[in-house]
Design goal:
mainly beta; 44% strand
């Protein structure tokens, strides 16, 4: 259980699979969206998925799914085998992160082909199944994966403001059927970001360190990406 910025409490579930060297974390946000973070350590890939409740009265489907795929850096999250050993002593405790990490603003300028995405990470097939037409990544991450030998044909560069001079941000765009740059923000309220080490001294005075806990973090992300029509981005409006 973790506390959201508005004071509400939400359930968060963490799972680790040390065999496939990945972890996943899921929480429901204050506006009802279901956010999942999957970290694939083997492929150095992290996948954010958001299932956003649709506005039926405005012609949207029941929910909209988005997937954002970025490079996983070392030491962002604790290793999967350490996560697998975590035990919750008191499930009723409401947790708050010890450290708030800075907001990351990412320009997602490349689309990922769902049917080829398994080459990048086998988890894309399961996690992003509902978001087949809405899987996004960044050119700089693509360059990193191409150097690792990933097939480049799964990536397609999306239209940019430089290609379409009248391309606006969706919240400034009056026409619901025009293409625009959408913005979606999410926050991972609590995750184990670092291992803590303690020191011990043996009888001979030799000092050694051992793992003695975790440090928890909270981190927010804002993703900007191209949509062919504003109808796919109705949350991004001036209120």
């Amino acid at each position: 259980r973790v506390r959201l910025p508005g004071g509400q409490v939400t359930e968060e579930s963490l799972q680790a699979d040390s065999r496939s060297d990945c972890i996943s974390l899921e929480l429901r946000t204050a506006d009802g969206a279901l956010v999942t973070l999957t970290a694939d350590f083997r492929q150095e890939v992290k996948i954010f998925r958001a299932l956003i409740l649709g506005e039926l009265e405005r012609g949207q489907s029941q929910f909209q799914a988005l997937c954002f795929v970025t490079r996983l850096h070392r030491n962002e999250i604790i290793p999967s085998e350490s996560m697998a050993k975590l035990r919750q002593k008191n499930p009723r405790t409401v947790r708050q992160a010890e450290e708030v990490r800075g907001l990351e603003h990412l320009s997602m300028d490349v689309a990922v082909n769902f049917s080829k995405g398994a080459q990048l990470s086998s988890h894309i097939h399961n996690v992003c199944a509902e978001a087949k037409e809405a899987i996004y990544t960044r050119e700089e991450d693509v360059r990193f994966w191409l150097e690792k030998g990933v097939d480049g044909s799964m990536f397609e560069v999306l239209p940019q403001t430089s290609d379409l001079p009248d391309l606006q941000r969706c919240k400034l765009c009056a026409d619901r059927w025009k293409p625009c740059i959408c913005s979606y923000s999410l926050s991972i309220e609590w995750y184990p970001c670092m291992l803590k080490y303690c020191k011990s001294r043996d009888a001979g005075g030799k000092v050694s360190s051992y793992k003695c806990g975790i440090r928890s973090c909270q981190k927010g992300y804002t993703f900007d990406y191209y949509v062919p029509q504003k109808q796919l981005c109705l949350w991004d409006e001036e209120t």
